[in-house]
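Protein modeling request. Please complete all fields; requests missing the sequence field cannot be processed.
Requester role: graduate student
Desired output: 3D structure, token encoding
Chains: 1
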Amino acid sequence: MNGPSPAIPAPVPATGLAALSAAALGIVFGDIGTSPLYALRETFAGPHILAIDRAHVLGVLSLLFWSVTCIVSIKYVSVMMRADNRGEGGTLVLLSLVERAAVGRARLLRAVGAIGILGASLFYGDSMITPAISVLSAVEGLKVAQPRLEPWVVPLTIAVLICLFAIQRRGTGVIGGMFGPVMMLWFATLAVLGFHGIGQHPEVLLALSPHYAIAFLAHDGIRAFLTLGSVFLAVTGAEALYTDMGHFGKKPIRLAWYAVVLPSLMLNYLGQGALLLSDPAAIDNPFFRLAPSWAAMPLVVLATAATVIASQAVISGAFSLTQQAVQLGYLPRLRIIHTSESERGQIYIPFINGSLLVFVIALVIGFGSSSDLAAAYGVAVSGTFILDTILLAIVMVLVWNWRKRYVFALAGLFFVVDISFFLANAAKIPEGGWFPLVVAACVCTLLATGKEGRALLASRLSRDTMPLESFLASMSDRIARVPGAAVFLTANRDGVPKAMLHNVMHNKVVHERNILVTVVIEDVPRVPAEARVEAHDLGNGFRRILLHYGFMDRTDVPKALANAKLADLGMVYEPSQITYFLSRETLVSGARTRLSYGREPLFLWMMRNAIDAMDYFQLPGNRVVELGNDVTL
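Delivered output (633 residues):
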């Protein structure tokens, strides 16, 4: 799922509609905004070469224009952005809406759960290819500006990518303020170059008529259909408009799209088409050929900056999606570093960052050019578009209560377009499209194993847990009470934490104040601070506290307890007087397990490589006591 995705917050203070729209240019539209670097070129010079003549140029441009209109302007901007969860967007958010509406429908819940896992898995493949093809296509402009620098294209691309991933640990706050202005300059450059190109051959404006797209498809048949795989490159990144809705809002994104991005993109594509009509030899790199020779090197610098921004959005999206997967129980706990105390959502995950860097560099070296990488691009994104359409159709029926004939008409149109693009991209699988599918299969296995394994582990722990009522009733006066407060973290809302039982059995003591804390991840992106804490007085010095978090929230237990109104329960929060007790489960392979297809060793490996609960819940290391026990799966 896309996901949740490119999800870094607005990097500049923005209160007005225009300011928010300008800020959105730097985050939301980086991917789709850099597509002119390679999309039209690949349509003519890709694996299914087309003759560069009037009929084909106008037909391809018409097909490209109406594809952008249908997928981006209608599907995502006009319809998908209506499906929000408290203002947030993204495939996981769409999934949460469906799951909430489908309560009691077991088959549907299993189906949409599988869709969610598959969508998230496809996104990781996309997050590896996007930085590679974007930065490489920009640096390839050196071959136009200075042909003698061609041998340096791949090394310079790798150097740029290493720098990009190296700065992730510092967060996007420092460079984020430049995103909007740089992308504004980028889109202005796209428009100016395109307008100049159209002036050389105004006939290209005829391509806005759907007649030329229909004629192209009818005349060229299967070749035209396979060309859709390259035309699709012009709409990759459309899902970011929906994913980042929570950071900017619907109106700023829609304003930026219709007022700046869409006109700039179409002017540039039409300008490239006009150039090809005048000079078919410019197909080697029509984007850079649009610019005068003196502007080639500055354009390479600007294009590289724009593609770095586009890559940044995808990398941050991978971080956000991973955080959500951890919160929802699909992945084990990973080290998540929050790079800003003031901006929510700015996170850094070392494991994901390092893994992406390795795969991105391998892609650049393995494929060697953006044209070859284009063969691998599009399969994952087109698959994500199909999954979004399926979830949207369910939302239309179960949440919006639309009449089914309207749902079938609109969602059916989207599905036909999406499946056409997917099938056209499927032809790329032998040439490189297999890569995102292999990545998706591996990630899908990890996510499914993590979810099923965690559910099995919770079942085992619940079965062996002593009811709290029985424990309190068995409390003996011979058990000493020691000063201070003890916080026991437990996943079970009803039973006695294992750490508490071990403490009583081995140390023969109970603290004066005992707090049983359970972290609950809700199916919403964020839970407001005032709704974070749910407290219950159990009597005899025991309290149970439920801490509610959204799947995009930071789980900081000490901070939540400090902000809780514990005085209402007769307790004063004193950090120096609190000891945190954790139960460390050591998983042991059982003779029989419900994990199918031999995935038990994989789940055990995932859990053994998870970070400590102490780090994940932000607990002070000098106030934590861990007590271990074995759990047989």
